[in-house]
Write a structure and sequence with these properties.
The complex is a heterodimer of chains A (278) and B (367). Chain A has 278 residues and is of the alpha/beta class. Chain A has eight helices and 15 strands. Chain B is an alpha+beta fold and 367 residues long. Chain B has two domains: 181 residues, no CATH class; 143 residues, no CATH class. Chain B is 32% helix and 16% strand. Chain B is built from 13 helices and twelve strands. Chain B has an eight-stranded mixed β-sheet with strand order 3-2-6-7-8-9-1-10, sandwiched between helices. In chain B, strands 5-4-12-11 form a four-stranded antiparallel β-sheet, with no helix packed on it. The interface between A and B is large, with 42 and 49 residues.
Chain lengths: 278, 367
């Protein structure tokens, strides 16, 4: 019987400070053992447990696409004891990595051949970055790709240089917005729901991934519903407190559902059938 | 599988013979600390006198103070150790060590081991603990007022999870082998039940089984749309008096939720510095951190609290509802049986008298 509690040993290969307040950093992790590194497979939308021995483990969404092999990226907000310890670590140090966990977005099944709409706000953009990178690497398998991504201010946007590169490509429609006008900002201004209403992505043969703070999600639903989006076309990703990540320890349950194993990705149809315990 | 009949003297001799191959444990309620066993309420047995005290007709009616959960789900259990440069090591420590035999297990407690093994089917630690443990049960001729195993799909003479069931019968004991291991342990001891005893034994079992079938609430709970009661006012009433002490979850043999935390290993404190693998031959002979799991309770607010401060089950009403819904709805939907064996410890020890039997009745009565 394999033991899913033993983490892989991984080395921090690179650290990028993402935001102006340095509260978010992206860690590039490389699994030390070559065999384990080559065997690693994940779907966009999955997460993993990152541990700092002595501090504990935290579930973190995977920010890299499986097409970016050899390493795994995690963009981590400094908030608790594990993430604070991670933020204090340096390149070359060793951490534990367990995963990948959860279901991820159905990019190879339900999403194939569809027009894709990606709506993200704030820190929740990390697994959406993984998804965008995957879609672009397999561009021929999908129709139009529309991205709507908002953050408080330009300095709080994640993956700035990639956002710029994507905007220059002709095969993806990028709509990056900030809450308020800021010096030097030439992009869109306004909350995600407002921009969604303006962009009005067609529900025709399409799926949407909506990830962000609950308040953003709440106000993004009406403009989408108004133009004909159905519950089964909309995908969300839940997060709950987690310990084992294997559907046993009970922390992440949302009614009958284990977010770690049955989720974290759910359609709005599935979500509506659940108690609001997330 | 055989069923044999032994008198008291023969039974004592058989129990003593098991000590040669097993660490034998039995209930030792009120006998103080037992250094050889870290499981409260259970002690290691070595002498004939001690065996005499735990004979099936000598132990108190109803369930023992604590369940056998800690034998399968140690409190705490080391999952992994780390060296000072963060390298993990964690082959199973608990696959090594003496095989154990637990004597005097009530059918409800034995059933809990079988039920918990369902969510833990891929858990190497639980499985290893189960593989090295033999359960010898004692059937209940008399119930305590808090017993309700029949309501949950069990029976006072239930055999789920057991290797051997001992039942007092006539002037002696019937020993029923329920697994191959149990069959081997009975060896060629004793005689088969004679016709009269067999008739009585069969009659008793059948009558218990019939009662249990009639009383079992599982089908009616499964037939009811309990999710439609999620928003019901009953949860407010049921949780009103709860103080979220968590006693129910800790005493419950089928509550299996856990927390994982890291602990620094302090060499100067004389704590064990053995690696989790226990082989002594691995690379990390000087671990500095151990990752442990230990029992947690969904009654505690911290159980679900996000790092952001948001709490999806932020009120005691949410938490009480979750505990009962898990036992009576979510677990049965996933695994088929209720996550309750009717041992009644939560009823016995709840400081504010919350009674899961009343919860079941209320859920079934409300529209």
């Amino acid at each position: 019987m394999s033991n899913s509690y033993i983490p892989y040993s991984a080395i921090i290969d690179d650290i990028t400070v993402e935001t102006e307040d340095a509260s978010l950093k992206t860690f590039k992790l490389v699994i030390e053992n070559e065999e384990e590194r080559m065997a690693w497979r994940h779907n966009p939308g999955q997460f993993a447990m990152i541990s700092v021995p002595g501090k504990g483990e935290s579930p973190i969404g995977i920010a890299s696409s499986p097409t970016e092999a050899g390493s795994v990226l995690f963009t981590i907000f400094k908030i608790g004891s594990v993430t604070t310890a991670l933020h204090e670590m340096e390149k070359g140090e060793r951490v534990g990595l367990r995963g990948p966990m959860g279901n991820g977005f159905p990019v190879d099944t339900a999403f194939k051949g569809k027009n894709i709409v990606i709506i993200g706000g704030g820190y929740a953009f990390t697994t959406l970055r993984a998804t965008i990178a995957y879609l672009l690497a397999n561009r021929q398998d999908y129709g139009h790709i529309t991205v709507i991504y908002g953050s408080r201010s330009p300095g709080m946007l994640l993956y700035r240089s990639e956002l710029e590169q994507w905007a220059k490509r002709g095969d993806i429609s990028m709509n990056v917005t900030v809450d308020r006008q800021a010096p030097g900002w030439e992009g869109l201004v306004g909350f995600v729901p407002t921009i969604t209403e303006k962009v009005a992505p067609s529900p025709e043969n399409a799926v949407a991934m909506v990830c962000g703070p609950p308040i953003m999600i709440k106000f993004t639903m009406p403009p989408l519903e108004k133009i004909g989006w159905k519950d089964e076309q909309m995908y969300f990703s839940l997060e709950n407190r987690m310990k084992c990540g294997l559907g046993v320890c009970g922390h992440c349950t949302c009614g009958p559902l284990y977010v770690c194993k049955d989720g974290p990705v759910l359609t709005r149809t599935q979500l509506k059938g659940l108690p609001v315990e997330f | 599988m055989k069923t044999i009949f032994l008198n008291e003297k023969e039974l004592l001799a058989l129990l003593a013979s098991w000590c040669e191959t097993f660490d034998v444990y039995a209930p030792n309620d009120g006998k103080g600390e037992d250094a050889a066993c870290s499981v409260i309420g259970w002690g290691k047995i070595a002498s004939k006198e001690e065996f005499y005290g735990v004979l099936p007709d000598k132990i108190a009616k109803g369930v023992h103070k604590t369940s056998i959960k800690p034998f399968f789900f140690p409190q705490p259990e080391t999952l992994v150790t780390f060296t000072s440069d963060n390298k993990p090591c964690a082959p199973l420590a608990n696959t090594v060590g003496q095989k154990r035999l637990i004597l005097g297990v009530r059918p409800c407690d034995a059933r809990s081991v079988m039920l918990n093994a369902m969510p833990y089917r891929d858990d190497p630690y639980y499985q290893a603990n189960q593989n090295k443990t033999v359960l010898v049960g004692v059937g209940c001729n008399e119930k305590a007022i808090t017993c309700f195993c029949e309501k949950t799909g069990g029976s006072p003479l239930g055999t789920d999870g057991l290797d051997i069931l001992i039942t007092t019968l006539g002037t002696g004991f019937a020993l029923e082998a329920l697994t191959n291991q149990g069959d081997e342990l009975l060896g060629s001891q004793g005689a088969a039940l004679d016709e009269a005893l067999l008739a009585e034994f069969t009659k008793r079992r059948e009558s218990f089984a019939a009662d249990a079938q009639k009383a079992n609430s599982t089908p009616s709970l499964k037939g009811k749309d309990l999710m439609s009661l999620y928003q019901s006012k009953i949860w407010q009433d049921l949780s009103q008096s709860c103080i979220n002490c968590g006693a129910c979850t800790f005493l419950c043999p089928t509550c299996y939720c856990f927390d994982i935390q890291d602990e620094a290993i302090r060499k100067d404190k004389g704590s064990s510095n053995a690696c989790a693998c226990g082989t002594g031959g691995c690379a990390c002979d000087a671990p500095s951190v151990r990752r442990i799991r230990y029992w947690d309770s969904c009654m505690f607010p911290l159980f679900t609290k996000h790092a952001s401060g948001h709490n999806p089950r932020g009120t005691k009403e949410h938490r009480v509802r979750n505990r009962f819904m898990h036992k009576l709805k979510y677990f049965p939907d996933r695994f088929g049986a209720l996550s309750c064996v009717g041992c009644g410890r939560c009823i016995r020890e709840c400081p504010v008298n919350i009674d899961i039997r009343e919860v079941m009745t209320t859920l079934l009565a409300v529209d």
